[in-house]
Amino acid sequence: MDVSFWNREIETLPEKELKKLQLERLKRVVEVVYNKVPHYRKKFEEAGVKPSDIKTLEDIVKLPFTTKEDLFVDYPYGLLAVPKEEVIRLHTSSGTTGKPKAIFFTKKDIDFGAELIARCLVMSGTTKGDVLQNSMTYGLFTGAFIMHYGAEKVGVMVIPAGPGNTERQIELMKTFGTTCFHMTPSYALYVASVILEKGIDPRKDLKIKRAYLGAEPYSEETRKKIEDMLGIDVYNCYGLSEMGGPGVGFECVYKNGLHIWEDAFLAEIINPQTGEPVKEGEIGELILTSLNREAMPLIRYRTRDLTYFINEPCPCGRIHRRISRILGRSDDMFIVRGVNIFPQQIEAVLMSIKGVAQNYQIVLENYDEMIVKVEIDRDFFDGRVERLLKLREEIIEKLRKTILVRPKVELLEPGTLPVSEGKAKRVIDKRTL
Amino acid sequence: MHKVEIISIFVENKPGKLEKITKILADSQINILGFSITSVKDFGVIKIFVDKTQEAYQLFKEKGFAVAITPAIGIEIVDKPGGLHEVVKFISSKGVNIENALVYVPESRKKAFFIFEVDNFEESLGALKNNGYNLLTKDYIK
Ligand SMILES: [Zn+2]
């Protein structure tokens, strides 16, 4: 496997030095927000913590979380840590209700965002001479712009296609020899299907080698599907406007988890209910502290995104820790018999068992009874009741080991549950107190 | 030639399930010759022995059911007290394990077959053949 670096020194910095750098930057950013951002000073005072209390990286737990709600206090400029004249860019991130989150950038913030993207692109083999079709929305959304700057930094030729107009997307790919594209996974799936419908052989008629897909969670199956349809490599990418846009974490050529740039972000994974760190390797909510942003650094920002740390060293040689693909939103969590459970944990177990189909549903009933409904796989059924009973036992046992609660499992006929497309309701809570 | 086939259908235990299955067969003029249900609380497997096996199998498959065809052996039961007991005793004396069973009566009070699934079809058939018992063949199916 070809491993290349944009910034070898920082990407392979030994763990000890990386931690030292993180601590320096953490101390600095805490000092800055305490002195420059009244809302942070107030929050720190309420939590009874001062910048001088941060002596080690572990001391970060003393600091209060920043939530989405904090972004609307003293809106829109209240969280600026620099004079307003230093700000050269506004981006927004749409909330589900009302006003959008306002995120500001200094010149240095934009440059540093591009630097992170340059690392991300080179990490998966993109280089000078490549042609990147950037099919994210150019506008208030950060995704397209920062990607654009990062690609230019590497020396890639950028086609600022923007989203939509599938005919034109395909025309651009054909005419200008696009070698990589940046898209949402759902749109990529659509574009891929149109390419095939048109009778274009992507392996012969197009030059695409890889795709960067992000901005919405997608499964490993979807990745493989797009890869097979187009004969390309698909890389997971993760970012959020609050942290300066895309480039928070991308996959390297090994495509096994996303390297978080730890010189730029301090990542934690917590139990969203208690705020406590989860045990090693457990699923939880990703918490990010921006260590290097000037305009609007955020301390322990609750991303609401679910993931887990992959702690083994990556064969690519990068020290920066990896997280799994984004598994969902922390709001999906529910509690049964005092145990926090995410539907994604249950899904992962079910997908690992031969004999169950893709769809499932979790029903919670009074007295904390948990029923997992799964459809059996048509091809698994061979007429034997004993085999079905064994399958049910296997599901119960594997779930119990993972979630520490023994659920009831109901085997259903294929096709009886609502289809899993995106936001199908997975958890039905019928409990009343 | 001594192999007969049984259709198995996976069903959730819900009212009207059996009715749905018998209706599908009735609508397609497929005759149910023998029938059994194994039920474990919330789900079950319906086993049917029909005159047009492939046709019935395709029909259930198209309708989205989890359906399977399994081989089975049929042995004639003599219509006399202890007739079934004798057949079952014979089967177990040959070391054959009966997995699921149903009864098929081609001619009322004249001819009946005990039909059962086994875990190892070829071996079991070999053990049961040529022992003076009349095994079911396709000729009896109408
Ligand atoms: Zn790596």
Please tell me about this protein's structure.
The complex is a heterodimer of chains A (433) and B (142). Chain A is built from eleven helices and 21 strands. With 433 residues, chain A is of the alpha/beta class. Chain A has two domains: 1-330, 3-Layer(aba) Sandwich (Rossmann fold), CATH 3.40.50; 334-429, GMP Synthetase, Chain A, domain 3, CATH 3.30.300.30. In chain A, the strands form five sheets. In chain A, strands 4-3-5-6-7-8-9-14-13 form a nine-stranded mixed β-sheet, with helices on both faces. Chain A has a four-stranded antiparallel β-sheet with strand order 10-11-12-15. A four-stranded mixed β-sheet of chain A has the order 20-19-18-21, with helices on one face. Chain B has 142 residues and is an alpha+beta fold. Chain B folds into two domains: 3-70, VC0802-like (2-Layer Sandwich); 73-140, 2-Layer Sandwich (Alpha-Beta Plaits), CATH 3.30.70.260. Chain B is 28% helix and 37% strand. Chain B has helices at residues 17-27, 53-62, 83-93, 121-128, and strands at 4-12, 32-40, 43-50, 67-77, 100-107, 111-117. Chain B has a six-stranded antiparallel β-sheet with strand order 2-3-1-4-6-5, with helices on both faces. In chain B, strand 5 and strand 6 (111-117) form a beta hairpin. At the A-B interface, helix 11 and strand 20 of A face strand 1, strand 3 and strand 4 of B.
